[in-house]
Amino acid sequence: MKEYKKRYGVTKTAKVLGVSRSGYYAWEGREPGRREREDRELAGLIKQIFKDHYGRYGSPRVWEELKSRGWRTGRKRVERLMRAAGLRARARRRRAVTTDSNHRLAVAGNILNRDFRAVCPGEKWVSDITYLRTGEGWLYLTVILDLYDRKVVGWSVGRGLAAEGVCRALTMAVGNRPPQEGLVFHSDRGVQYCSDEFRSALNKLCPSVRQSMSRKGNCWDNACAESFFKTLKTELDILEGNHNHKEVRTGVFEYIEIYYNRCRRHSALGYAIPIALTPNIAA
Question: Contact at 8 Å (CB) between 35 and 42?
Fold first, then answer.
């Protein structure tokens, strides 16, 4: 009635709904109950969390964030309040294929074998390359993730798909996080990862490394890196092709270094934040 009374009037609305005018006025003048007051407070906090994370959080991560702030509430309640407020995380976009495995260079076996668990930092790294749309043409992003905490330890953005970009990401990764003895470095069979340039850099920077590669045409063998790119392209809102190279580079830097590694909760980590798992390791 409260929603429709301005349009149809109290008398007409009460008649249609089969209630009395006096009953409606009694309800309207009543103080809100404890549950309603809590819902209002909780809804305000949910809206602030949603805003703080740039509309990237759905109900599971909002719920985890509330729990970390001392709220004891159910996930269904959070879903209901987000739905009532029209808060919905961004939908995922389809990813373009970047792998060029049509070459005669030697490939490595699949040592990782979809075992995405790691007991310590620097034990297992996964890497991949993706396209980024800009108003000035494509950029190409290479990332290296540590499977221990899913942190992006190395990355680079360039205008081409040469092995140089992968080498830059590797140099950053080694500088940020020393690899363990016997590090497993996993990627797809792309020409960049099979090139002499990259293999030389890999063996120089990680002397005891074991290079691992996905089976041909099997994206699930590198699912963690694939998942990162899906998340990036869902949550970073400047990849629709209307921004220039500088803006996209800056956006990628801010997303990875300021948000993804330091603020975003990861479902694979039990909704922990990567930096919280390795506080004594260089960022």
Answer: no
Helix, strand, or coil (residue 248): helix
69: left (phi over 0), alpha (psi -120 to 50) or beta: alpha
pLDDT in tens, the chain (283 residues): 566 666 667 677 777 677 777 766 666 666 566 777 788 888 888 888 888 887 878 888 888 888 888 888 888 988 888 888 888 876 655 554 555 555 568 899 999 999 999 999 999 999 999 999 999 999 999 999 999 999 999 999 999 999 999 999 999 999 999 999 999 999 999 999 999 999 999 999 999 999 999 998 788 999 999 999 999 999 998 998 899 999 999 999 999 999 999 999 888 888 888 888 765 554 4
d(CA 241, CA 226): 21
Interatomic CA distance for residues 228 and 145, integer angstroms: 9
Under DSSP, is residue 65 helix (H, G, I), strand (E, B) or coil?
helix
Picking from 175, 179, 176, 173, the residue whose alpha carbon sits closest to that of residue 206 is: 179
Nearest Cα to 162, choosing from 132, 144, 145, 140?
140
Residue 212 sits at the vertex; the CA angle it makes with 207 and 215, to the nearest 5 degrees, is 165
User: Could you tell me the two tokens for 272?
Assistant: 């922990």
